[in-house]
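Re: beginner question about structure tokens

> Can someone show what the tokenized structure looks like for a real chain? I only ever see the sequence side.

Sure, here's an example I had lying around. Input first:
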Amino acid sequence: MVSIYGRFFGQFLVENGVLSPSQLEECLDEQRRINAPLGALALESGAMTAEQVEDVAARQRETDERFGNLAVSLGYLSPDGLEDLLRNQGERHLFLGESLVRRGVLDYSRLEELLARFHNESKLAEAELPERLRSADGNEVRLVASTAR
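And the corresponding structure tokens:
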């Protein structure tokens, strides 16, 4: 996890001279091509029509609900069909580190070393969050984002 004061892994790599900005952009482009949204996978697999995908996407913008949940509630996908699409999406997912290894920019041992350093620095940054970042009832407000995506 990375706090709002933390950095994304790709930024960390560029800032530490491991990657150039253009190398990072190439890897991110590869991720965008491979990590298809659920609607695109539903269309590609024939599980939904283009009209259904567009309907769900339009409703998703209005309700801020997950695509798959909306598609099931509208009857466009069965729960089992959604599960199949999510499994397919997960199997196809490409992480930045995997892209870097595939391209020969890093080997796995160097990737592991850099990830450990990145996570360690991110924890330090999270510890620096101001004490005042608390909700009105006194509970801590966690401002984090996943590093996996």
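Each token stands for a local structural state, so reading them left to right follows the chain. Residues 1-6, 132-149 have pLDDT under 50 and may be disordered.
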